[in-house]
Amino acid sequence: MSHNSWLAINRSRHEPRGTARRWRLQLETLEDRTVPAVFNVNTLLDTVDVNPGNGLAQDAVGNTSLRAAVMEANALAGADTINLPAGTYALTRVGANENGAALGDLDVLDSLTLFGAGRDSTIIAQIDAPISPATASSTTCPANDPNGSM
To answer: Which single residue of 18, 61, 68, 88 has CA 20 to 30 Å from 2?
Structure first.
C-alpha cells in the first residue's frame, strides 16, 4: 500500500480476516510553507506597486518596475528574487524618511536577491545609495558594486 503525506488509506484493524475490505480515508495536515516569490521586471520606469501584498508587483498600467517588485517583496514573508533585464533603472521618486520603498531609495525589509544581466548591462542609478537594507537580515545583490551596477 502506498502512503502519501497528504492522504493515508488505512484498513480497519478490527476487521476479521476473510471479510470484505473496508478502507478508511484520513487526511493529514501539512506544515505551513512560504514559497519564495520571483518578480520579473519589465519596465525601466520608476513606478510604485498599486497593491503591495497581492503577489503581483504591478504598477497602475500592469507593468512590473524595480520599485514595484521591491515593494511587493517587502510585503511578502520570506526570501524573494527580482530578475532585472539589461538597462539603466533610474530611481526618480524623490523622498526621504520613508522605509517602504515608495519614495527615494529602495528600502529592503526582508531577504532579497537581485539578478541582473551583468555588471555593465544592468545599472541602478540614484544620487544616494540606491538600495537601503532598512531592517533586513540579509540583502544579496550579485555582482553589485558601490555605483549600483549589477
So the answer is: 18
